Amino acid sequence: MTVRSEPEVIDEPAPMQRRVAEERRAGRTVGLVPTMGALHEGHRSLIRLARQRADTVVVSIFVNPTQFGPDEDYEHYPRDFERDMAACAEEGTDLVFHPDPGTLYAPDHSTWVDETSVSAPLCGSGRPGHFRGVCTVVAKLFHICAPDLAVFGRKDAQQLRVIRRMVRDLNMPVEVIGAPIVREQDGLAMSSRNRYLDPSARRQARCLRRALDRAAEAVRQGQRDAEALKILMTGVIGEEPDAALEYAEIVDGETLESVDRIEGTVLAALAVRIAGTRLIDSEELTPDEEESPD
Amino acid sequence: MTVRSEPEVIDEPAPMQRRVAEERRAGRTVGLVPTMGALHEGHRSLIRLARQRADTVVVSIFVNPTQFGPDEDYEHYPRDFERDMAACAEEGTDLVFHPDPGTLYAPDHSTWVDETSVSAPLCGSGRPGHFRGVCTVVAKLFHICAPDLAVFGRKDAQQLRVIRRMVRDLNMPVEVIGAPIVREQDGLAMSSRNRYLDPSARRQARCLRRALDRAAEAVRQGQRDAEALKILMTGVIGEEPDAALEYAEIVDGETLESVDRIEGTVLAALAVRIAGTRLIDSEELTPDEEESPD
Q1: Is A292 a domain residue?
Q2: A109 and B170 in contact by Cβ < 8 A?
Q3: Is position B289 within any domain?
Q4: A:5-34 residues touching chain B, CB 8 A cutoff
Q5: Among residues A179, A213, A231, which one ends one of the domains?
Q6: Least CB-CB distance to A173: which of B117, B118, B143?
Q7: Structural domain boundaries, residue B203
Q8: Cross-chain Cβ contact B170/A135 below 8 Å
Q9: Closest to B167 measured CA to CA, from B150, B154, B181
Q10: Which is the most buried residue in A18, A21, B37, B226, by most CB within 10 A?
């Protein structure tokens, strides 16, 4: 891999706004990859996709306090700016936006962007306020970085759909691109939180992928009942001693509303704590076309 | 007054986004005046201010359903597009954005911009959801019209402050300009709702201005007690038989929090129903510099 030149680092909103305005005046399109740092191969794939699609690639690195609950891992979330900068450079990032929390949130911050439908089920029910924090920071980053397009991983399946809905509802002039999940060799979806797993937990964490594979196989075999698929996935997760299921759901692929029958594309979605570390994974399932009964 | 050429009317978000992108590529600045139509001299003054400050002036005309409560006057709010277009043309408007409600809000619209502090007192307490609707539609209009600056009337004193807070908190790249209140000869602040007033109500409506004048005079005379000023204003409103006070408040000029003593600049703010029509008015009061005691 070619090492590209060091990206330009900007740590405040106003200089970033001026910098991207220059890019746009020069006729260059801007692609944004919002991240919380701790960049892994999944993030790199997002940066590469932005690199293909936009003239100027901006990566934001910001551990957003407002999307963490009071008992969550904000304080301990991995931060390694030097390593992240090396990854950004290697993938051809032009600009890195790396603000302090105090720069992005005034002490009397009082404005929130709240998506109230797509964000309600799944992670939304277990993490109250999470998607409000996500929408608020993404809206801020869009206003600061003025991207033509922004790339998000499909691994955060609900987040991607919530952001698409926000962009549609608020008429944000940004194309939202969902990038494929990148997995470890054994199928575990890449996540900055995987580094919390000790070897035993890491081994058990394969159950998420296994549960999704089993559900997909059942759908291929003709299973169309959502409840049966949920029971199947729950059973697979239950095979691991340190796995605690948060949810195993079959929902509409766009609105994330519960479905009873697998008709159009659905999302099979899982959240599981493995020895205390919360992991999510999901897969879109589409039943094969069946002969229409005459 | 010179009649300028007819403005270009655009009624959907995407063409408007393309149109303002052209303006910006050509190096022209864009000024937006968001209105609900029924344009009067107050609105015209906003358009003139935008005309002075920006190369391209956009006026949006949209009676926003989400800022009206269920028992409010959304259905009956005055609409007169032909007359509004004439006013826009006379004041030198370049583009008019005039969408249908169905174009701006999808049936499953679910994303809201919610300012939770500055919007809480005054009109916010009597009109739940009002400022959420205002912030949401203004955010949408900013994303659609991409203005460099936007002009709002100081007559809607709380709205102006809520929007400033939203712009700050969400890092919107828009300069918010507050324009002076335009008044009728007898002091009544211009409002599209003044046309609801019959002659008797119209006469009684002068009490808002009179109450603010009395409060300002009392401050000039040395009154520094907020409660005394509220009682004074309440008394003036009570002089009119068909006037029902909603609030008479003395609040911090920026945060709109209640104050006990007049120290820095405060806002004296009134909401009064005159024979059923809700009117608001306000004035910033600043005590004269006093000799500092030795």
Answers
A1: no
A2: no
A3: no
A4: 13, 17, 24-25, 27
A5: A179
A6: B143
A7: 192-283
A8: no
A9: B150
A10: B37
